[in-house]
Amino acid sequence: MAPGDPARASGNDTPVTQFILLGFSKYPDLQELFFGGFLLIYAVTVVGNLGMMALIFTDSRLHSPMYFFLSVLSFLDICYSSVVTPKLLADLLVSDKSISFAGCVVQMTFFVMHATAESFLLASMACDRYMAICRPLHYGSIMTKETCLQLVAASYAFGGANSAIQTGNVFSLPFCGPNQVAHFFCDIQPLLRLACANTAVAGVVLYIFSALVTFLPAALILTSYSSVLAAIGRMRSAAGREKALSTCASHFLAIALFYSTVIFTYVQPHGSTNDASGQVVSVFYTIITPMLNPFIYSLRNKEVKDALQRKLRIKLFPC
């Protein structure tokens, strides 16, 4: 039955105290394979992002706004992947796939907060590249430490606001009937389908605020990078063009991975995707993309590769 159908209100009146995360239970023979794969990906995610953060904090040559934002991006990737993946791993090993009502609220709250904060952080990173390439004479005076901290704080403020709105939007509805969530974590759309009330208004709220926190940063990013690409095209130095393009290509690839999957999941007409395709896309942006980001930035960034080589030389050849 589709979200928003009034017939949902005629079900059982017993309040739901827990949800069952069905996740990948349709594939019982593949549970161990899924567990091994997701555990490996999660381990690489944590180690890769922590390694990126440690490298940036310990190498003075990487103490610039761009790498500060990159370290925050790594932190966010660890956070929102950790909100989802450990519970998924546990559910793949046990038959009881339940999560308490309060646990579901907490999981959704922190997931939406960190995912939204990452959306605005990516916009901040695009603005940083715009200032560095298009306004180099003013870069040092504008992109100060205080400005960077304010941009990160603003990203978290937007994340907290969107999280409060979206979580409140879902859990202000009554849940009194089915409690089986056709997903591997407490996501917004699967839970709206279980509400014992008309969810038409809640669906509109989801669509509007999801669009705001994706399209506004995305528009800022596209505007910034359009100016950046134009500025790169006017550069006379081939080496300068190559370095700028390499850095911007890393940023743009990470941005494309994040926004394409988020828009596919949240900024679509209700019911336009089925549960299976929704889960596949969710795996990509909650589990795989956080693992890929450190490699995207390190493999295409000469400064990061040089810093890593310096650290390895010190460790292997301390004298």
UniProtKB/TrEMBL annotation:
<keyword id="KW-1133">Transmembrane helix</keyword>
<dbReference type="Pfam" id="PF13853">
    <property type="entry name" value="7tm_4"/>
</dbReference>
<feature type="transmembrane region" description="Helical">
    <location>
        <begin position="191"/>
        <end position="209"/>
    </location>
</feature>
<feature type="transmembrane region" description="Helical">
    <location>
        <begin position="215"/>
        <end position="232"/>
    </location>
</feature>
<dbReference type="GO" id="GO:0007186">
    <property type="term" value="P:G protein-coupled receptor signaling pathway"/>
</dbReference>
<feature type="transmembrane region" description="Helical">
    <location>
        <begin position="98"/>
        <end position="123"/>
    </location>
</feature>
<keyword id="KW-0297">G-protein coupled receptor</keyword>
<comment type="similarity">
    <text>Belongs to the G-protein coupled receptor 1 family.</text>
</comment>
<dbReference type="InterPro" id="IPR000725">
    <property type="entry name" value="Olfact_rcpt"/>
</dbReference>
<feature type="transmembrane region" description="Helical">
    <location>
        <begin position="279"/>
        <end position="299"/>
    </location>
</feature>
<dbReference type="InterPro" id="IPR000276">
    <property type="entry name" value="GPCR_Rhodpsn"/>
</dbReference>
<dbReference type="GO" id="GO:0004930">
    <property type="term" value="F:G protein-coupled receptor activity"/>
</dbReference>
<keyword id="KW-0472">Membrane</keyword>
<keyword id="KW-0807">Transducer</keyword>
<keyword id="KW-0812">Transmembrane</keyword>
<feature type="transmembrane region" description="Helical">
    <location>
        <begin position="244"/>
        <end position="267"/>
    </location>
</feature>
<dbReference type="GO" id="GO:0005886">
    <property type="term" value="C:plasma membrane"/>
</dbReference>
<dbReference type="GO" id="GO:0004984">
    <property type="term" value="F:olfactory receptor activity"/>
</dbReference>
<keyword id="KW-1003">Cell membrane</keyword>
<feature type="transmembrane region" description="Helical">
    <location>
        <begin position="33"/>
        <end position="55"/>
    </location>
</feature>
<dbReference type="GO" id="GO:0007608">
    <property type="term" value="P:sensory perception of smell"/>
</dbReference>
<dbReference type="InterPro" id="IPR017452">
    <property type="entry name" value="GPCR_Rhodpsn_7TM"/>
</dbReference>
<keyword id="KW-0675">Receptor</keyword>
<feature type="transmembrane region" description="Helical">
    <location>
        <begin position="67"/>
        <end position="86"/>
    </location>
</feature>
<comment type="function">
    <text>Putative odorant or sperm cell receptor.</text>
</comment>
<protein>
    <recommendedName>
        <fullName>Olfactory receptor</fullName>
    </recommendedName>
</protein>
<keyword id="KW-0552">Olfaction</keyword>
<feature type="domain" description="G-protein coupled receptors family 1 profile">
    <location>
        <begin position="48"/>
        <end position="297"/>
    </location>
</feature>
<dbReference type="GO" id="GO:0005549">
    <property type="term" value="F:odorant binding"/>
</dbReference>
<keyword id="KW-0716">Sensory transduction</keyword>
